[in-house]
Amino acid sequence: MKILRGEPIAIPISGIVSDSRPVMPGFLFVAMTGGSSDGHDYIREAIAKGAAAVVGERIADGLSVPYIQVENSRQALAHLAAAYYGYPARHLTMVGVTGTDGKTTTSNLIYRILLAAGLKAGMISTVNAVIGDEVLDTGFHVTTPDAPEVQHYLKRMLDAGLTHVVLETTSHGWAQYRVDACEFDIGVITNITHEHLDYHGSFEAYRAAKARLLLTLGETHLKSGDNPKLAVLNRDDDSYDYLRGVVQTRAVSYGLRQDADLCAEDIRYDPSGIQFTAKTSEFRVTIESNLIGAYNVSNCLAALAATVTGLGIPPATAAKGIAGLPGIPGRMERIDLGQEFLAIVDFAHTPNALRVALQAARLMTNGRVITVFGSAGLRDREKRRMMAEVSAELADLTVLTAEDPRTESLNAILEEMAQGARSKGAVEGQDFWRIPDRGEAIRFGLQLAKPDDIVLACGKGHEQSMCFGEIEYPWDERTALRAALAEYLKIDGPQMPYLPTQDEGFEGD
């Protein structure tokens, strides 16, 4: 944290925030630029509410409380929050996981292995935070929590007697310095593919944001416990060479290719899971998992590399932890009400994730694969075309629908997707359809299904809302699929969640 003007002053601080609205007497207010507003415009409001001191990037004279000008407020917030909570990560073994796809699954696999090894472990993911027996839901359009929240979670974990933490981190979290001062001991990168280019501006900037996890390994303080400083990299990913060049610590690679340090052989797939042998020059172990698809072989290998190579957990113990994971909410999650075909909810919302989900679906049945998905508004526009192209190539039938259009025209989003499908030879009304209301799209997908087919609803997964305009409407994809299946089977079931596309006269422009 680089200070440009002002000097640290020993005054009591009772809280630290970057939003002026929750400021209370004795709080430290950190003013940040960016987003839809500038925190510097609310400095005097924060002081009026009792802020004891202010940190910001701009020059601010004539304030009635101490003010320190720093080079980067966001980065300062992370280090200030860590200091406020007593640098909890310095007393924990920290495993960071990032990547475009697979980071939630990999985080959960690592967490299960730690528990199987008898370690007192916690986890912070984009699905939930687990602190001992307490599970906190974080599935409401989330990314990595803000720095004060992260540090608060870590302090609570330390106070609860935990020794190890798995922290799933996003590119936004890294670009906005939310997980700086987390003192990572192991950094895992699952893959880096096309995503979030609307925010980062280029693939290179997106990749660099992910790579910050590896760079911070060298900055981790010496700890009394495990302090391996290990980078875990996917040998199969196109970004491997770039990431390997970034690493300044020990590194281990994993992958399906045999030149990886940890690789898989004798892979067997079936609708109930995967089995394979994981091997290195030092060990071989049989892995059985309830997860499906080749991409989950990679996720299991990443977890093994982090825990066995990184933390010295016995391979057989790690295998037990992997086998004990029943599944991840909203990740290839089956919804079965007795229908004659498979109905699955998956979070796939990137071109690569949709591709591997469809490839996994192919291994589960000899029937047809029917996809239902959309593409978000105010996000990477190129992804809309790419996802429709993937589905046109790999699925038998495609239903395009709403997925968080936000303030964009839903009809325009669907047209961009339709163009992608048509570019691969798909014919509207024969190979693909546009149905704006997501509930109706799911119903239509079920009506298309025949025995042994798969209906795959992608893009929402575990999330608990969908955004139209600036309003978040409650939406659980699993509830929606159960509601549609109950209607299809003419049995009792939940009600289809409401979306404004259900309203008569909704135009979608």
Poorly predicted runs are: none
How many helical elements? 15
Beta fraction of the residues? 15-25%
| Fraction in helix | 25-40%
Oligomer: single chain
Biggest beta sheet summary: 11 strands, mixed
What do these coordinates show?
It contains 15 helices and 24 strands. Helix 9 (294-311) packs across helix 10, helix 12 (382-394) crosses helix 13 and helix 14 crosses helix 15. A hairpin with a 2-residue loop joins strand 23 (465-468) and strand 24. 52% of the residues are buried. The model has no long low-confidence stretch (mean pLDDT 92). The protein has an eleven-stranded mixed sheet with strand order 9-8-7-10-6-11-12-13-14-15-16, with helices on both faces. It is α/β, with parallel strands linked by helices and 509 residues long. It is globular and about 70 Å long. Helices cover 33% and strands 22% of the residues. It has helices spanning 43-48, 73-84, 103-116, 147-159, 171-175, 197-200, 203-217, 240-246, 294-311, 315-323, 351-362, 382-394, 410-423, 438-448, 477-489, and strands spanning 3-5, 15-17, 27-30, 53-56, 67-70, 93-98, 121-124, 128-131, 134-137, 164-168, 186-189, 230-234, 250-255, 262-270, 273-279, 284-289, 333-334, 342-346, 369-373, 397-400, 432-434, 454-458, 465-468, 471-474. It folds into three domains: 3-83, MurE/MurF, N-terminal domain (Udp-n-acetylmuramoylalanyl-d-glutamate--2,6- Diaminopimelate Ligase, Chain: A, domain 1, 3-Layer(aba) Sandwich), CATH 3.40.1390.10; 87-323, UDP-N-acetylmuramoyl-L-alanine:D-glutamate ligase (3-Layer(aba) Sandwich), CATH 3.40.1190; 333-502, Alpha-Beta Complex (Protein-Tyrosine Phosphatase, Chain A), CATH 3.90.190.
